[in-house]
Amino acid sequence: MSIKEDLSQIKNDLPNNVTLVAVSKTKPVEDIQEAYDTGHRVFGENKVQEMTAKWEKLPQDIEWHMIGHVQRNKVKYMAPFVHLIHGVDSLKLLKEIEKQARKNERIINCLLQIHIAKEDTKFGMDEEEVHTLLSSSEFKEMKHVKITGLMGMATFTEDKDRIKKEFSSLKTLFSSLKETYPENEHLQFNTLSMGMSGDYELAIEYGSNMVRIGSSIFGARNY
Question: The pTM is what?
Answer without folding.
Answer: 0.96
